[in-house]
Amino acid sequence: MLSEKITTALNQQIAMEAYAANYYLAMASWCDQQGLEGSAGFFYAQAEEEREHMMKIFHFVNDADGKAIAPAIAQPPSDFESLAAICKTALGHEQKVTAAIHAIQKQAMSEGDYRTINLMNWFVDEQLEEENQMQGIMDKLKLIGNDGTGLYMLDKELGAKAAAKEAGEED
Ligand code: FEO
User: Fold this and answer.
1) pTM for the complete prediction?
2) pLDDT of 170
3) How far apart are CA 58 and CA 48, in angstroms?
4) Lesser CB count within 10 Å: N end or C end of the chain?
């Protein structure tokens, strides 16, 4: 049985993952509008992934005899300055998610709640991967600067990444 504190924290995390999914969806839409099809595909895939994160916690809470709450989701921004600005925002949001995961981890450890610790371990690894990925894209964008060809190539690369993910070749 989950403690009340852990249940509340996990439900907050469910809401955070749901918001992340919508945030990525908004980013994907902006990219689509700009003709950045590969980047749009990448962010659509990110949105799917965040929904999977949400569901992973959702099922966990219910399976552990807690009560998972379907969250209200605030509308994320829909206008962005550039792909670089999007990635910066995305990284900042992922860092917030990581901090929240660490807080749950800490609470679970203090309670000796090994099931939640186990779940959060998975998320700690996932967050590291996501932050590194976003940082990597930002590094490339810095190198590219205002070079249209570079942006075109990166967009293609992000599209390929999304396609590989969809084909199950990448996490
Ligand atoms: Fe599931 Fe990227 O936070």
Assistant:
1) 0.94
2) 67
3) 15
4) N
